[in-house]
Design goal:
203 residues, alpha+beta, five-stranded antiparallel beta sheet, 4 helices, globular
């Protein structure tokens, strides 16, 4: 089963390097809760496409994300991707949607203006989570895949070239303007993400 963890920064904003540090901190705390022993500070390497992995635990699949005061990580036994996005006004949003799959564009256009912000962010995290799980990132065109039953809480990723089956889970976090999605070759996901309180690294 894919497990998902999320936390808020202990401060409102941070530079990308600081955000990456706290994403690693979240991953370490998540692994401690799963009784997986790793070094402190945690050691991550990246494959040829830039996807992170743990050299100490090569069979364990992990992924990280951070956005606007939130960090998230996912852990599983098969390739996994996670994306978190704090809602914010994004210039050129309609232009970005035009790069999505036609069915996603149709769903976006059919939504009322009030719903489009939520819809955009949910589409974005779903697509990002698949790109990360697949491992090739933006080498895959954004219109080459879509989520079955667009914006259901869970489903399967439909691809033009269906080499592998991928599944997704969209989490809607009550009372927070943030979207969270995870995608994996595993079809079983945690019912809810686990919220953790970020702690300083040991010195």
């Amino acid at each position: 089963m894919v497990r998902v963890y999320i936390a808020e920064f202990p401060f409102e904003k941070g530079k990308p390097k600081e955000q990456s540090k706290w994403a690693r901190r979240l991953l370490r705390q998540a692994l401690e809760g799963e009784d997986v022993k790793v070094s402190d500070p945690i050691s991550l390497e990246r494959d040829e496409y830039g996807k992170p992995f743990l050299p100490e635990c090569p069979k364990l699949q992990i992924n990280l994300s951070h956005s606007g005061g939130y960090v998230a990580c996912a852990v599983g036994d098969r390739p996994v991707g996670v994306d978190v996005e704090r809602w914010r006004s994004r210039r050129g949003r309609d232009r970005i949607v035009k790069k999505f799959h036609p069915l996603e564009q149709e769903a976006y256009r059919a939504a009322g203006e009030h719903e489009r912000e939520r819809l955009f962010h949910e589409l974005w995290v779903l697509k990002e989570s698949f790109l990360k799980a697949d491992g090739r990132g933006l080498l895959l065109p954004l219109n080459s895949f879509y989520m079955e039953g667009i914006l259901r809480e869970r489903g399967r990723v439909i691809q033009k070239e269906n080499e592998k089956d991928f599944y997704y889970r969209l989490y809607r976090i009550e009372g927070r303007a943030v979207s969270l999605a995870v995608c994996s070759e595993e079809a079983c996901f945690a019912q809810e993400p686990v919220f953790l309180k970020l702690m300083e690294e040991s010195t």
